Amino acid sequence: MKLRFWGVRGSIPSPGPNTVRYGGNTTCLEVRTDAGDIIILDAGTGIFPLSQSLLGEMPLAAHIFITHTHWDHIQGLPFFIPIFVPGNNLRIHGAFDPITQKGIREVLGVQMEYSYFPVREAELKASLEYINVMDHQPVQAGAATVTPVLMNHPVLNFGYRIDCEGKSFFFTGDHEPPANIYSPEDSFYQQYQEMIAQKNEAILDVIRGVDVLVADSSYTPEEYTTGKVGWGHGTYDTSIAIARAAGVKKLFCTHHEPTRRDDKLEAVFAEALARHPRQEGDPEILLAQEGLVVEF
Ligand SMILES: [Zn+2]
Ligand SMILES: [Zn+2]
């Protein structure tokens, strides 16, 4: 399997001299199986440079998995060149939201409406198929099996595990490990605590043992506790805890804050590593970086 990071920034594209080393594009990951299947995770602005790299491979088939439909995970899709080219076959997977009663097709269709984009959805020339995925219900993507698992974020967010030929990968999308909303004196505290434990276990079950985990590590613990609780994002520390508990081999911290310049990003990451001295069996822990290719 081969992973390439095309966008590692959270919330909003952040180009410029301050982010040139880690990159300013929003979330997009490309996973290639050894059989050559193209799996794309999220369609942030990083999907545009990805699409440039695919021009020589058309006609192509690609399996796109959307973790959730916040802008930073979908806004590149109208600029994904293969959707305009006949002969390409694109399968776009995502959630059906029971609150809005909308599937992935309806939600993504909005950004192709006349007010926002000059090309109408009907004019897209590729063969497009939309698939609503379900929690813990694996789907096939070429030679790979992709298992969605519901994470914790202000909109439905699926993490995806990819298994192919004995190799495995997991991407959280945006995820804040759930915390107890009651205080320990409250009668609901214990019940809620058990619910959280179950939820975390259901997530860990899917992540367990993967070769590569890419996890939302937006904040430092200080940033998190001073005003970011409930925003739906993890910290370096929560990602390290998940990676250790799940026994993964390699962890990439991603969804870098748009305000975090390269040197600052390296500094807060070094501090995070120092808070968690290496233990036996620990994963290798790295920062996700635009353009980085990982073979496993
Ligand atoms: Zn995001
Ligand atoms: Zn989000």
What's a concise summary of this model?
This protein is of the alpha/beta class and 296 residues long. It has helices at residues 47-54, 71-74, 104-110, 189-207, 221-225, 236-246, 262-275; strands at 2-7, 28-32, 38-41, 61-65, 89-95, 127-133, 139-141, 144-150, 158-164, 167-171, 212-216, 250-254, 284-287, 293-295.
Structure description:
- The chain is an alpha/beta fold.
- The chain has one domain (2-295): Metallo-beta-lactamase, Chain A (4-Layer Sandwich), CATH 3.60.15.10.
- 23% of the residues lie in helices and 25% in strands.
- The protein has 7 helices and 14 strands.
- The strands form 2 sheets. Strands 6-5-4-3-2-1-14 form a 7-stranded mixed beta sheet.
- The longest helix has 19 residues, at 189-207.
- The model has no long low-confidence stretch (mean pLDDT 96).
- The protein binds zinc ion (2 copies).
- One zinc ion binds at residues 68, 70, 153, 174, 232.
Observed structural traits:
single chain; 296 residues; alpha/beta; Metallo-beta-lactamase, Chain A; seven-stranded mixed beta sheet; 7 helices; 23% helix; binds zinc ion
Bound molecules: zinc ion
Number of helix segments?
7
| Sheet/helix structural class | alpha/beta
Q: Please give the CATH class.
A: Alpha Beta
CATH topology: Metallo-beta-lactamase, Chain A
Report the β-strand fraction as a percent range: 15-25%
Taking pLDDT < 50 over at least 5 consecutive residues as the criterion, the unreliable ranges are none
On the 0 to 100 scale, the average pLDDT is 96
Specify Rg, calculated over alpha carbons: 19 Å
User: Any idea what the CATH superfamily is called?
Assistant: Ribonuclease Z/Hydroxyacylglutathione hydrolase-like
Number of strands: 14
Sum up the overall morphology in one term: globular
| CATH structural architecture | 4-Layer Sandwich
Question: Main beta sheet, described?
Answer: 7 strands, mixed
Give the strand order of the largest sheet, numbering strands 1, 2, ... along the chain: 6-5-4-3-2-1-14
- End-to-end span in angstroms? 6 Å
